[in-house]
Structures are given as structure tokens and as C-alpha cells.
Amino acid sequence: MTDLSDTRALVTGAGHGIGRGIALGLAAAGADVAVHYGSSADAAAETVSMIEKLGRKATAVQADVTSAEQVDRMVAEAVSFLGGLDVLVCNAGHLIGRVPVAEMAEEHYQRVVDVNLGATFRTCKAAIEALRESDRPRIITMSSLAAHNGGGPGSVIYAAAKAGIRGFTKGLAKELGPDKITVNAVAPGYIADTAFHNTFSTAEAQQTMIRNAPIGRSGQVEDVAAAVVFLASAEAGYLTGSTLDIDGGTWPR
Ligand SMILES: NC(=O)c1ccc[n+]([C@@H]2O[C@H](COP(=O)([O-])OP(=O)(O)OC[C@H]3O[C@@H](n4cnc5c(N)ncnc54)[C@H](O)[C@@H]3O)[C@@H](O)[C@H]2O)c1
């Protein structure tokens, strides 16, 4: 099993869903974790308690990821609690709502870009100084199958923002290569039992997504966590600027 002992990680949007799965995966491999949340303090406290039961240190840190000021403060709190930072996982993101481009308000468009691409930019920016002090620094960003295939109905701007994260990841990998900071993205397909799909996808759409995956099942948060744990490991040290598709083979459908 991958050994992440003595690893200090910050996972954004880790109160539930994929973020919680990633936080627990990192902790199970030996990492201490700062659990970021936006508004669900109870869910974040539950993730913290689950990590502590695994014998690792954890704390909850709050910020609206659309605010640079709050993100700077949140990253500083995480670094202070952990005593440094080795792994940053920018998981927080949101579809906001399914709206066709022809009907989308300018404000909605800006919000979708800001909570996905903007949040990834400002969280990475806030963490770079601390990561430069690490012996094995890693950044992992959250793209999506939507970045490749344009997403489902009413998710054009979400797909564009997730494609932007893919480009951002490639560019940042080049920029931070000299610092030995690896930067990679994961691009999940349909991950079941998440607020994302429970809120925005019909049962019929969820069945279609399962049929579209050659592997013949939906993804689980553990599937995403396993890839993130690998990207955080010493073994992944020569892997940077990549996007790992975790979609059961769905792409390019
Ligand atoms: N569920 C899927 O199938 C799927 C597929 C591909 C990509 N993703 C991506 O995975 C990530 C996690 O999604 P999920 O499915 O677990 O859904 P989720 O809604 O449970 O998680 C989103 C997280 O982002 C946080 N967040 C959103 N807006 C925020 C804000 N303004 N400030 C602070 N935190 C904020 C939420 O608190 C939440 O913890 C997202 O980036 C999503 O786009 C999900």
C-alpha cells in the first residue's frame, strides 16, 4: 500500500462527496489532513472525526473559495495546523445549475468560472510558498469528463471551466517544475452518490452514464481517492502536467 506517512495535506471541499473520499484515502495512507469546507461545518467536523479514528491529525478550515482573502487565510490556517504543506488537492467546485448558454445570465457564467477555475487558481497561488518548503510537493486539481465531452445538458460553462483547469494544470506544471512541485489533474466521469449528481442528474441520466462506461458500473469516491493517493505518492514523482481520466473508459463518448 502507498505510504504517505509524514505527509501534510489540504483538501478543499472535503466535508462530503469526492473531497471527503480523498481526505479519507490520504489519511488511510498515513497523511495528516486539513479539511476545507465552504458552509457545511457539521459535515467537515464529521470528516475530521473519521480521519482521527484512522489515527491521523485533522482539522477543519473554512473559506468561500471565490474570495482570495478567505482562501489566503484558510491556507495559512491549514499550514499552521499541519506545520507545513506537502499535498494540495483543489477539489472544491460546482455546476451551480443546468442552464443553456442562450438563457444564461452573465452573473451565472462568472460564478461557474469563479467557483471552479478561479478557485483552483487562487488556492494554488496561496499554497505555492508553503509547498516550496516541502521535500515532496504535490498539487492535484479537479477537472472532469465534461472537459473532454462538453458535459450533460446545461453544463457548457462548467465543461469549459473544467477544461480550463486542465490547461491551468499543464501550465502550472511547467511553471513549478523547477521547484520540483508536480501538478496533475484528475478527471472523474460519473461518480455515484454525490450531491453533484443527486442534485443535477435524473435517474435516467445516471443509468445512461453507467451504460456509457465500458467498465459497466458507476464510479465511487474511492476510485477518485485511489488516483489522488497515487499522485501524492513518492512513486509519482516524474508524473506532472497530466490529467488522469477516472471514468471507466467513458471518454471519448
Ligand atoms: N460527482 C461527479 O460525478 C463528478 C465528476 C467530475 C468532477 N466532479 C468534481 O468533483 C468535485 C467534487 O464534487 P462532488 O461530486 O463531491 O460534489 P459536492 O457538491 O459534494 O462537492 C463540492 C464541494 O465543493 C465545495 N464548494 C462549492 N462551492 C464552494 C465555495 N464557493 N466555497 C467553498 N467550497 C465550495 C462544497 O462545499 C463541496 O464540498 C467538484 O469539483 C466537481 O465538479 C464531480
TrEMBL record:
Keywords: Oxidoreductase. Its EC number is 1.1.1.100. The keyword Zinc does not apply. One of its GO terms (molecular function) is 3-oxoacyl-[acyl-carrier-protein] reductase (NADPH) activity. It is an enzyme of class 1 (oxidoreductase). GO terms for biological process: monocarboxylic acid metabolic process. Belongs to the short-chain dehydrogenases/reductases (SDR) family. This is 3-oxoacyl-[acyl-carrier protein] reductase. It comes from Microlunatus parietis.
